[in-house]
Design brief:
This protein has helices spanning 3-9, 55-64, 101-111, 128-139, 215-232, 238-247, 271-275; strands at residues 16-21, 39-40, 72-73, 80-85, 91-92, 95-96, 116-119, 121-122, 143-147, 168-173, 191-194, 198-201, 209-212, 260-261, 315-316, 336-340, 343-347, 356-357, 361-362. The chain is of the alpha/beta class. It has a single domain (3-362), classed as Peptidase S8/S53 domain (Rossmann fold, 3-Layer(aba) Sandwich), CATH 3.40.50.200. Strand 18 (356-357) and strand 19 (361-362) form a beta hairpin. It is globular, with a radius of gyration of 18 Å.
Length: 363
């Protein structure tokens, strides 16, 4: 993604991302000063900044890590994290977990100052209460990303919340732009992002990083991309940010206009293509580009998302993304993980998860 070039235009300053996950440790070197007050939906001992494992902290670092102390430098290091803690287990630390923690978490994120919700968790059972919470978040102007799941070879069953129409379902690709063999596919996929061989905390001891594959990683990086764009255009709505992400996405060569891939959705995220080359137009602030339905009314009320911060479709089966960016955008069509300056920098190529389940699981 040419992160160094992107950061000359935007680092995500003024944007807050609610990370619904297993807790976010605010004490890792890369997250010091990056984590705001959060919410614990589990109702077990601890707070949103007490991590059950390293998963949620990894997601936060991929989004907004500074790279300090040799840690991960996220794609939007100027953004801030609001941790919302849930659990993938029914019992945590000997205590019963709130059965409605995901519902409460989504509603808390909707009521928070976050413009973006990033949820690298999934469940293969649709819930009316959870869907209502998702629709509530949309009504509040939030842009909601979730991993489509890692069980492509184990039934490929739809995962929620990614499968709800109000949520942007994110698939995972590797460094060559190929969709990961783990990444689930179908009409739940809206966008794709790097998800394979991404470093993250091995466990909650926070002593070392391990490479891992998953749509969780992809979800975090898609959320960070949205933060970059929204920071550059703080008066835009969630619909406009998402529309630009879709219009600037990388697609396979020969893909017909308007076609949606079962593996890559509208394409691979490329914030650099918009931020430095101007690809993508915001369009109607009130219309969701995925559903073409009106979700906001900016004429009768203030924009509910970023105003306060500084900030029928054809199907194609292209499992391999080989396009890169357009010639005028100057994309390379690959993703790379650069190690330099003592920090592991997540530098995505111009073209361009982790998600799990108990009842729910990380993706």
């Amino acid at each position: 993604m040419r992160a160094e070039e992107i950061w000359k235009a935007s680092t995500g300053t003024g944007i807050k991302v609610a990370v619904i996950d297993t807790g976010v440790s605010a004490s890792t070197a890369s997250l010091k000063g990056q984590v705001l007050d959060g919410f614990d939906a589990t109702k077990v001992k601890g707070e949103a900044t007490d991590a059950f494992d390293g998963h949620g902290t990894t997601m936060a670092e991929l989004i907004a890590g500074t790279g300090a102390g040799g840690g991960l430098k996220g794609l939007a290091p100027g953004a801030r994290i609001i941790p919302i803690r849930i659990s993938e287990n029914d019992v945590q630390g000997g205590e019963q977990v709130n059965n409605f923690d995901t519902v409460d978490a989504i509603r808390a994120a909707a009521d928070s100052d976050a413009q973006i919700i990033s949820m690298s968790f999934a469940n293969d059972v649709r819930s009316v209460q959870e869907h209502d919470a998702v629709k509530y978040a949309q009504s509040k102007g939030k842009l909601f990303f979730a991993g489509v799941g890692n069980n492509a070879k184990k039934g490929n069953k739809k995962q929620y919340p990614a499968a709800y129409p109000e949520v942007v379902g994110v698939a995972g690709i590797d460094q060559d732009g190929r969709v990961g063999d783990y990444s689930q596919h179908g009409d739940v996929v809206d966008l794709a992002a790097p998800g394979s061989e991404i470093p993250g905390w091995c466990d909650n001891t926070f002593k070392r990083y391990c490479d891992a594959d998953g749509t969780s990683n992809a979800t975090a990086l898609a959320s960070a991309s949205a933060a970059l764009i929204w920071s550059a255009h703080p008066d835009w709505t969630s619909n406009q940010v998402l529309r630009v992400m879709i219009e600037s996405a990388g697609r396979a060569k020969g893909t017909k206009a308007g076609a949606v891939s079962e593996y890559l959705g509208h394409g691979i995220i490329r914030p650099n293509t918009h931020l430095t080359h101007g690809v993508g137009k915001p369009g109607d602030p009130n219309i969701n580009p995925l559903t073409n339905e009106k979700t906001l009314d900016t004429k009768s009320s203030p924009t509910p998302a970023a105003s306060s911060s500084n900030g029928s479709q054809a199907k194609s089966d292209d499992k391999v993304a080989v396009a890169g960016s357009s010639e005028e955008a100057g994309g390379s069509g690959k993703t790379g993980w650069l190690i330099g300056g003592g920090a592991a920098v997540i530098a995505l190529a111009a073209v361009g998860g982790f998600v799990a389940v108990r009842r729910k699981r990380t993706t």
